[in-house]
Amino acid sequence: MEKHRGLLSPVGKRDRRSDEEPVYGLLKLHMDIMKTELKVILLVLVLLWPGFAQAEAKKEYPFWQLVAKSVLIVEGPLDVPVVAIQKSEQSDNHEYAQVKVAVSKTLKGKPESQELSFRYYTDTEQYGGVSRKKIIPLNGKSAIVFLQNVRGKYYLAAYVPETLQSASTTLADRVRKEAGIQEKLIEESDRYANGHVLPKETEVQSLVELMVDKQTDPGTAQAVYEAVIALGKEAVPTIIKYMDDRRKLNIPKISLKPWWPDAHEGLVHYGPETVIDVLSVALMALTNEDLTAIYNGGTELERQQAVRIWKVYERRTYGQPVTR
Question: For the domain bounded by 63-167, which CATH number is listed?
Answer without folding.
Answer: 2.40.50
